[in-house]
Amino acid sequence: xxxxxxxxxxxxxxxxxxxxxxxxxxxxxxxxxxxxxxxxxxxxxxxxxxxxxxxxxxxxxxxxxxxxxxxxxxxxxxxxxxxxxxxxxxxxxxxxxxxxxxxxxxxxxxxxxxxxxxxxxxxxxxxxxxxxxxxxxxxxxxxxxxxxxxxxxxxxxxxxxxxxxxxxxxxxxxxxxxxxxxxxxxxxxxxxxxxxxxxxxxxxxxxxxxxxxxxxxxxxxxxxxxxxxxxxxxxxxxxxxxxxxxxxxx
Length: 250
Description:
The structure is a single chain. The protein is mainly alpha-helical. The protein has one domain (about 5-245). It is built from 11 helices and no strands. Helix 2 runs antiparallel to helix 4 (about 75-115). It is globular. About 30% of the residues are buried. Keywords: Membrane, Transmembrane, Transmembrane helix.
């Protein structure tokens, strides 16, 4: 079993060895996470709130001195906002599937390679030029879909599945042509007995995230995010070596 303190120490050394490219890639990955994971939902929710506001406002104006024709325009305007919200949400989802997830795999590839060599920021695009773009898109989409479906049952099963599939983008980063069934099976095997420890490792960075919040994200950009990504890349490398030793990957 890996040691959390040792992984974090090695991760810190790895990203400091190639500092600026690590900062750049970690920043790209954090933007992907914020924009593609929550941006679409936030825009949709905001638009829906606007639609509700305008609809409610039209009811209020109906009882005032405004004409019926004027107030009748508000529901139509709300419907337009709703349609725009749906289109934005759909566009954001498609962007996440066909671009965001592939960049995530490229980012994981960068930090795995960064353990043994100096890598440029351009490595984040490796998923697009691997020759297996379609397989990466499919596997990452199914990962997100399965986690979402499990989360519909209860929050806890969704969280458990997210940890079970934690290694999938790392596996794809080195084996972009691997079938999704095999990638899921290997990730599940790697994470057996490690989910709680991985959760604790996630929690161990909270202090750094709080410091990043206090500094308006400056510390997150220049230290925390590359530190986190490099540390979890070390965890994957440990699991990969363990998998070779146990013989379930070749």
